[in-house]
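Form 12-C: Joint structure prediction
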Amino acid sequence: MLVTVRVQRFNPETDSKPYYQEYTVEVEPTDRVLDALNYIKWYHDGTLTFRRSCAHGVCGSDAMRINGRNRLACKVLIKDLGPKITVEPLLGFRIIRDLVVDMEPFFAQYRAVMPYLINDEPPPVRERLQSPEERELYDDTTKCILCACCTSACPIFWTTEWLGPAAIVNAHRFLFDSRDRATEERLAILNQKFGVWRCRTIFNCTEACPRGIQVTNAIEQVKRRILFEQS
Amino acid sequence: MTTETAREVRQVSSRGLGAYRGYRPPPGMISWALHRVTGLGVLLFLLLHIVDIFLVNYGPETFNELLFLYRHPVFRIGEIVLVAGLYYHAANGVRIILIDFWPQAYRYERQLFYGVIAVFLLAFVPTAILMIRAILV
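Section 2 - Result
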């Protein structure tokens, strides 16, 4: 199957602004977009730059805009896209080169919510017990791989500095964990001007998440928790 | 060092309003964009409305003189657009309240949006017919 891949290119040392370049490649319908990009890089144009690591939808490196929506290149099959494919870098970040963007602001947001278990109580003789029901409360948000598909699909994030969906998902993972003791500190961070209240329930994050996390629902749960517990 | 400065100069990011064009909007994004546009439109009318009501202070003559504006055909068509904006903003506002306070609403986010469009059409089409008739006579 012959497909035309239109890739947004940008080299900061030679180009003044991004431009598009088309490549025609022979692929199997069951190949993934990542396979097409690898084929271009290995046999057509070695200067094409993109991130990828595990290539199996777990590491979250190859998040990019595929036909205008945020997807992992290693999880989208060519047959679901048709013969014309447009690949662009994630929105809302500085472009380092071609499809590689500067994710540092994204990880700064992530670190801001204290994404680790906080519990100063002396550990019990055995494990800190948790019932299956308690575990179920935050099961969905444990699935995050920090690929930034959700945050860079958020129209609010494109124009405003705010925590963004991914950071809130990871805050939710500890807020709803019965073993964690930093609820108040975390809710205080999320209750700030640029915390959860910037969310306008657009649902772009949920649509984009390659792990199927109900991102907007997690944000709404945090909002309700602040509303009913803090006031 | 020279390449370093070149990098400084050619910083390209896709932040700002231009980013809206770069994303193929899912239904939720369309509902949000319409909500913003209709909200701003209604606000604009509200400002005008405050000004015209304020003119009552200067006596009935001043107030009546302004009313020619509201009888102008362009304004009367604009009124139909205003009603459309109001109806959409109201219906989608209820949808947003449901998403915020009904914990299961996220499961039906799309269906709720199609419901908003249905409610909007049911309310707007008869109103628009009545308003167009009023303009024509």
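Section 3 - Comments
The first strand of chain B starts at residue 12 and ends at 13. The first helix of chain B runs from residue 2 to 9.
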